[in-house]
């Protein structure tokens, strides 16, 4: 027998779940649905009182039963099971589902959503402690003459009253209000705002006002998913243009400005020509890829001299643990042959620093890889790169896992692949690694499960962190002078993760900082500077020209460890940089301003984000500024029990000799193999 969740309906304050039964046995009794919460292992049982046509059942349950205050838990993921008794046995079946529901708002700060996991099993997820100032819409589009917005008009089945969409002009604070009307479905509203109402040369933020029960509410409008597939540009008569964008907090921004003039369009022609050139390069790359595949299959013999190939982040950098290992290797064993696999853009850097290299995706690169003895990389090689049997492949990886990896990602939504295909390719690639470097027991266990990895793990710590352990105050002073950072000021490092939902549409990314630089300067600008380490897609479009007296953009700086060393504290969110920064025993402040959205819409976490971090969490800008003040007053965290518990779990095995241990491992392999 099989049970499949087939429907979900709102019934006053309860949710009605519908299940399809397949291959029903002849007779059974005591039919019930059991809910089991994954984290707490709490359980709730609901008897089945309604059986329809022998293969369809329905139950009603209040979401209040599926959330509780114990343990400070705010996220609940319930698995569903169908249980019944037959003449001979008691049967428990896990409920399947291909049904994915939208978000159903339970209150201003909580919602639920039904999903299907990687195995096709149903999960009923409840999310509490959501930001009170956010209202999620379904879509926003520009038609020929209107800005069209759709969203839900109910909270927990209760209709929203007096609902209005508000346009607020950012510069003046002026407001325009538009009532909502019924949408195409009874639970949806729709608002059409005439484009001619938009003030000229303005930036408008979207808000919503409404009454629910006796409470009057104003919230900013957000769109959790990207703008892809929605109409975001419109040209008005008279040479005006309207543009929809998302800011970094997923808020909706409407811009009205003059359409490009003929001169500006002519000036844009080089960009269009560049697009044609890029298309030609894409075609050329495809042809070259076929040639590379053929070259890898043509057969090679190894060099007589031990040759070690290093690669970092697919050839985009000369950095990270491979670089730390390379530098020590070149110092201790200059008689070996070392070659860096790089993108063409790094040729100048390698020449300036006397680093031997080969350019990726060339005939020489194929020959070098295939004839070398060892590969040392921190990321995956393409699947079509053939690994000869005589090559020892050492994978250093590039961080302690916070977000789910590999097989542990239940639903893969990347274009061009499926969850099953992605998992298969990941395991196939991982088991080409002969040895995998791990920084701690926690990572070792995850690497085994997430990579399906069955070969040798070198639990020696990350070689890139040797620099953090072996550096002294004089080294830090020299670094600051080289980087142009004032010696008499404290340094705050902001290093957030790149968010998949920052993608707005093809070629466009949101990039606004989630806090005010003006507020930062007002409170800390006299004796503190701010270092930004952003993702390159965001950094390239970021304008900090008005703040160069205290803000330094080091997003393109090659060695992030130098940024750790010169900073007095770290601000981050979901980036794994804090695992490395903890080696310094300096304060870390977490600013996950979109934590619930990020966790729900993107990948999950291995750690309990609300309990296991080595620092305080700031949920908004006010808490962020207060947290910075507190962190700068406590520069040494070695006396903080919570911090040291984290340090002992994740950092304690690294003694500053990780590079040497990997070098010794390779040398031992060379001696063993003659």
UniProtKB/TrEMBL annotation:
> Which stretches are annotated as coiled coil?
none
Q: What residue range is the signal peptide? A: none
So which domain of life are we looking at? Bacteria
Annotated localization? Cell membrane
- Cross-referenced InterPro entries, in alphabetical order? Glycerophosphate_synth (IPR007554), TagF_C (IPR043148), TagF_N (IPR043149), Teichoic_Acid_Biosynth (IPR051612)
Xref: SUPFAM superfamilies: UDP-Glycosyltransferase/glycogen phosphorylase
Using the UniProt record, give the first listed, main subcellular location: membrane
Keyword Disulfide bond on entry: no
Record-linked Gene3D superfamilies: 3.40.50.11820, 3.40.50.12580
Membrane topology category: Peripheral membrane protein
The keyword Transmembrane is annotated on this UniProt entry: no
Q: Which UniProt keywords apply?
A: Cell membrane, Membrane, Teichoic acid biosynthesis, Transferase
Q: Which family does it belong to?
A: Belongs to the CDP-glycerol glycerophosphotransferase family.
Q: What is this protein called?
A: CDP-glycerol glycerophosphotransferase family protein
Organism lineage string: Bacteria, Bacillati, Bacillota, Bacilli, Lactobacillales
């Amino acid at each position: 027998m099989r049970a499949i969740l087939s429907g979900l309906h709102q019934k006053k304050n309860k949710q009605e779940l519908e299940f399809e039964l397949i291959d029903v046995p002849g007779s059974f009794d005591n039919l019930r649905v059991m809910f089991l919460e994954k984290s707490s292992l709490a359980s709730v049982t609901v008897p089945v009182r309604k059986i329809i046509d022998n293969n369809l059942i329905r139950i009603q349950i209040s979401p209040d039963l599926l959330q509780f205050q114990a343990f400070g838990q705010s996220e609940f993921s319930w698995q569903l099971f169908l249980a019944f008794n037959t003449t001979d046995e008691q049967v428990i079946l896990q409920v399947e589902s291909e049904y994915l529901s939208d978000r159903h708002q339970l209150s201003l700060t909580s919602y639920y959503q039904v999903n299907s996991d990687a195995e096709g099993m149903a999960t009923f997820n409840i999310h509490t402690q959501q930001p009170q100032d956010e209202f999620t819409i379904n879509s926003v589009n520009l038609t020929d003459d209107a800005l069209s917005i759709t969203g839900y008009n109910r909270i927990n089945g209760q209709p929203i009253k007096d609902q209005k969409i508000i346009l607020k002009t950012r510069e003046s604070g002026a407001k325009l209000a538009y009532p909502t009307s019924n949408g195409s479905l009874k639970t949806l509203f729709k608002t059409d705002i005439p484009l001619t109402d938009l003030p000229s040369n303005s930036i408008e933020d979207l808000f919503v006002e409404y009454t629910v029960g006796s409470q009057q509410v104003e919230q900013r409008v957000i769109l959790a998913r990207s703008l892809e597939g929605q109409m975001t540009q419109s040209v008005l008569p008279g040479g005006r243009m309207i543009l929809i964008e998302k800011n970094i907090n997923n808020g909706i921004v409407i811009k009205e400005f003059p359409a490009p003039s003929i001169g500006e369009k002519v000036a844009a022609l080089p960009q269009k020509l560049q697009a044609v050139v890029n298309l030609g390069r894409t075609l050329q790359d495809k042809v070259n890829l076929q040639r590379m595949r053929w070259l890898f299959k043509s057969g090679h013999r190894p060099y007589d001299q031990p040759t070690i190939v290093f690669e970092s982040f697919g050839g985009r950098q000369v950095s990270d643990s491979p670089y730390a290992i390379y530098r020590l290797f070149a110092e201790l064993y200059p008689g070996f042959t070392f070659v860096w696999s790089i993108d063409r853009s790094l040729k100048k850097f390698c020449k300036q620093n006397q680093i031997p290299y080969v350019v990726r995706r060339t005939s020489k690169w194929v020959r070098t890889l295939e004839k070398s003895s060892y590969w040392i990389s921190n990321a995956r090689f393409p699947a079509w790169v053939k690994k000869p049997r005589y090559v020892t492949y050492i994978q250093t990886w590039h961080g302690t896992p916070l977000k789910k990896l590999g097989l542990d990602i239940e639903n893969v939504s990347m274009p061009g692949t499926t969850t099953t295909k992605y998992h298969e390719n990941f395991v196939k690639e991982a088991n080409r690694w002969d040895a995998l470097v791990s920084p701690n027991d926690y990572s070792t266990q995850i690497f085994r499960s997430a990579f399906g990895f069955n070969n040798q793990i070198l639990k020696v710590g990350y070689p890139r962190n040797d620099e953090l352990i072996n550096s002294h105050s004089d080294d830090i002073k020299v670094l600051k002078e080289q980087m142009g950072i004032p010696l008499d000021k404290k340094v705050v490092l902001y290093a957030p993760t790149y968010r998949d939902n920052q993608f707005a549409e093809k070629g466009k990314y949101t990039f606004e900082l989630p806090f005010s630089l003006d507020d930062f300067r007002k409170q800390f600008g006299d004796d503190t500077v701010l270092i930004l380490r952003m993702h390159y897609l965001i950094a390239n479009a970021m304008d900090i020209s008005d703040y160069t007296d205290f803000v330094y953009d080091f997003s393109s700086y090659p060695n992030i460890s130098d940024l750790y060393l010169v900073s007095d504290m770290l601000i981050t969110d979901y980036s794994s940089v804090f695992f490395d920064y903890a080696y310094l025993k300096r304060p870390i402040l977490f600013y996950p301003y979109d934590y619930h959205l990020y966790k729900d819409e993107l990948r999950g976490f291995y750690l309990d984000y609300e309990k296991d971090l080595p620092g305080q969490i700031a949920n908004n800008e006010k808490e962020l500024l207060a947290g910075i003040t507190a962190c700068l007053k406590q520069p040494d965290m070695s006396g903080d029990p919570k911090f040291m518990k984290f340090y002992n779990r994740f950092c304690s095995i690294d003694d500053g000799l990780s590079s040497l241990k990997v070098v010794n491992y390779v040398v031992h392999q060379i001696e063993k193999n003659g």
